[in-house]
């Protein structure tokens, strides 16, 4: 079996370091099938995606593997077999096999390296050239995700093994059914064309039929091309920096067509060793809530609406200093209030430029009943390590949801000192090798030519710097850029 060895060591000063190492007590390697789909067109050679992994989940190359295929559920012998080398792009010819479902088994030539993987995967072979497919189901769909053209149109391929099949094709988007078509098809492969409504970015196509009292239904997701994608690239950037020297970088923002666009950007560069304590990353996009696609064949569950809270709501920002720890930047979390979702955000250190600070958004309400209810729920949460409270009027908390509720009378007056308003000791200094942050620039503007400049002086430290930037436009298109730079003085 595979196991993990974990160790924690605490020094006399209270500093704790952790380490872990996976290991196996059996054979050193594991055989896996590394493909997202098991539907294979036998008209063309197929790259058999068999991988060998060690205990660290790293791929191992140059291992001889024997593979074989049998018809699923049959007692007949192997119908096709061969040998491949792990890590090499070797193709297999399945054109001699009839369209059916096959069981794939793999074992190493050297049996001391890994256990044999019987029934590693089930492969569904079909042939568009021969117009054949497995007959286990009344509808066969090789692909279940499609990208439309810019006009929202797409042709979907499906097959019907029966001689005569009446096929329904339904398109749903924006929480409604857009179209339902019924057509008779002969045996073989066919294309059906669908088009998304003008204001729909994605949709769900259901292809279904009923034969001899049994209904077969296939769901196919379709999406428009992502025209909101933008790219941030840097020019005049050097992979190696010289400590104590000035730098001036130009970054350029472009749209999906490569055209420059204006926007804004925040950027920071910090000692990359901090990532070993708590990995840092800026958000990659704005999470814009959209209506889910409709068309359900069973009772829908879950919430598909948002509500409002009675009473006056506002947000109070507080700052808790706890150095020299390092926190990531932005974390979304949710609460359910009165049976409806409400979205909150917890803003952490990088948003206010403090490497060691924690910035939190606290929910404040003047609704006394709401405050009392929420505080009562919070006290229950503090007493239980793992909990789940049934949904009622008020706030539902689970083990990954939390936020502070403060009544107005508990809010300190502006300028009043609080327990969390402290700051690091001004006499404390890091050694040059412990400089945590090179710069923090949260208010950069990108001009109409899609360009912005960053000017700074590299801190006087030999280290590796991690550069993170987050850029966005007025219509909330967003992207990130992450690069590492080595700063070192030349050796004389």
Model description:
The protein is mainly beta. It contains one helix and 30 strands. The two termini are 52 Å apart. 19% of the residues are buried.
Q: Total number of helical segments? A: 1
- The side-by-side strand order for the widest beta sheet comes to 4-11-10-7-8
Radius of gyration equals 29 Å
- In round numbers, the mean pLDDT is 74
How much helix, percentage-wise, in residues?
under 10%
Shape: flat
Going by helix content, strand content and strand pairing, the class is: mainly beta
What is the tally of beta strands?
A: 30
The parts where pLDDT drops under 50 for at least 5 residues are 296-366, 377-424
Portion in beta strands: over 45%
How far is the N terminus from the C terminus?
52 Å
The quaternary organization reads as single chain
For the sheet with most strands, the description reads:
5 strands, mixed
């Amino acid at each position: 079996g595979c196991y993990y060895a974990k160790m924690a060591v605490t020094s006399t000063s209270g500093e704790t370091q952790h380490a872990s190492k996976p290991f196996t007590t059996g054979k050193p390697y594991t055989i896996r099938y590394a493909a997202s789909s098991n539907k294979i067109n036998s008209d063309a050679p197929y790259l058999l995606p068999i991988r060998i992994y060690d205990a660290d989940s790293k791929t191992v190359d140059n291992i001889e593997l024997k593979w074989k295929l049998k018809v699923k559920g049959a007692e007949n012998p192997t119908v096709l077999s061969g040998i491949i080398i792990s890590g090499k792009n070797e193709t297999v010819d399945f054109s001699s096999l009839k369209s059916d479902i096959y069981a794939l088994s793999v074992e190493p030539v050297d049996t001391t390296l890994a256990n044999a993987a019987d029934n590693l995967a089930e492969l569904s072979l079909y042939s568009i050239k021969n117009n054949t497919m497995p007959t286990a189901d009344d509808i066969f769909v090789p692909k279940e995700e499609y990208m439309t053209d810019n006009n929202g149109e797409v042709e979907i391929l499906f097959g019907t093994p029966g001689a005569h099949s009446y096929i329904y094709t339904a398109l749903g988007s924006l929480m409604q059914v857009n179209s339902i078509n019924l057509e008779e098809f002969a045996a073989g492969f066919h294309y059906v064309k669908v088009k998304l409504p003008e204001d729909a970015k994605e949709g769900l196509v259901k292809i279904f039929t009923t034969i001899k009292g049994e209904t077969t239904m296939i769901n196919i997701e379709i999406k428009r091309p992502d025209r909101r994608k933008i790219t941030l690239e840097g020019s005049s950037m050097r992979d190696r920096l010289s400590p104590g020297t000035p730098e001036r970088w130009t970054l350029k923002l472009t749209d999906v067509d490569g055209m420059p666009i204006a926007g804004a950007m925040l950027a920071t560069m910090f000692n990359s060793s901090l990532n070993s304590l708590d990995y840092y990353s800026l958000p990659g996009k704005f999470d814009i809530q959209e209506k889910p696609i409709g068309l359900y064949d069973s009772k829908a569950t879950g919430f598909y609406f948002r509500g409002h809270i009675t009473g006056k709501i506002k947000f109070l920002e507080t700052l808790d200093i706890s150095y020299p720890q390092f926190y990531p930047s932005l974390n979304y979390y949710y609460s359910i209030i009165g049976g409806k979702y409400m979205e909150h955000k917890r803003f952490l250190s990088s948003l206010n430029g403090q490497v060691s600070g924690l910035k939190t958004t606290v929910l404040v309400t003047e609704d006394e009943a709401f405050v009392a209810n929420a505080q009562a729920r919070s006290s229950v949460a503090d007493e239980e390590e793992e909990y789940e409270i049934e949904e009622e009027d008020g706030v539902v908390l689970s083990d990954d949801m939390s936020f502070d509720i403060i009544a107005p009378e508990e809010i300190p007056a502006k300028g009043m000192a609080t327990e969390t308003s402290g700051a690091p000791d001004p006499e404390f200094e890091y050694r040059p090798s412990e400089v945590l942050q090179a710069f923090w620039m949260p208010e950069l503007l990108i001009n109409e030519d899609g360009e912005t400049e960053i000017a700074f002086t590299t801190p006087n430290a030999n280290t590796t710097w991690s550069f993170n930037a987050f850029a966005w436009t007025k219509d909330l298109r967003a992207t990130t850029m992450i690069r590492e730079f080595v700063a070192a003085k030349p050796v004389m």
